[in-house]
């Protein structure tokens, strides 16, 4: 596919607030609720509540400034380190963490998360729990072998990446090269969780059309197997949204661990 007219996320970034408003807001006209909000939150809630994935450190490598995929995870890790390649996304996220005026309103997703868990966390809101768990937001560079160079991060019990690998890669070789960098951040017995979009070529954010690397479920499965991982959980949500803002056929959540 000729994507020469598309912007490339690692180099060009995108408008993080426009991204949140289009794909994660609580507005009535937001058509992606089932796919971008409910599906990942429900799937990750199920995965983490099995009780096998927990520990000291979770590293989040995701595009944009969304946080709802971390609500359940924040209950199972002592600290969350968030890595971002975009200064604008870092600023948007820090507004949320520090409860600054003008921060994106996540109340609709906090209420949805509480509804999924009954009364288990009513005394302290999900946003408070998550903000406390996020101990650092760190700039990263995917062109470096150590993406946080010169800082060396402690090995993580879990690395979660949501809708990022498709935005930072132009082909299969790039995908493999970058997922290996993600894997290096894990402890030997750590877990890798991927949230991705299948058969996607672009995403629109405002007036910009952003390049997306197109892949399918079989490709991800094969990459993980080649890197020595066993898949513990794989869920696929076929597209429900009617919109030309993004051309995915489905979203996928995969949890995997290394073979002993």
Shape: globular
Estimated structural class:
alpha/beta
> End-to-end span in angstroms?
39 Å
Number of strands: 9
Task: Give the strand order of the largest sheet, numbering strands 1, 2, ... along the chain.
Answer: 3-2-1-4-5-9-8
How many strands, what sense, and barrel or not for the largest sheet?
Answer: 7 strands, mixed
Name the helix and strand elements from N-terminus to C-terminus, one letter apiece.
HHHEEHHHEEHHEEEHEE
**Which value, in Å, is the CA radius of gyration?**
17 Å
Output the number of helix runs.
9
Strand-residue proportion: 25-35%
Average pLDDT: 93
How much helicity do the residues have?
25-40%
Low-confidence stretches: none
Explain what the structure shows.
- The chain has 260 residues and is of the alpha/beta class.
- It contains 9 helices and 9 strands.
- The strands form 2 sheets. A 7-stranded mixed sheet has the order 3-2-1-4-5-9-8, with helices on both faces. Strands 6-7 form a two-stranded antiparallel ribbon.
- α3 crosses α5 (107-116).
- The longest helix is centred in the N-terminal third of the chain and has 17 residues, at 33-49.
- The model has no long low-confidence stretch (mean pLDDT 93).
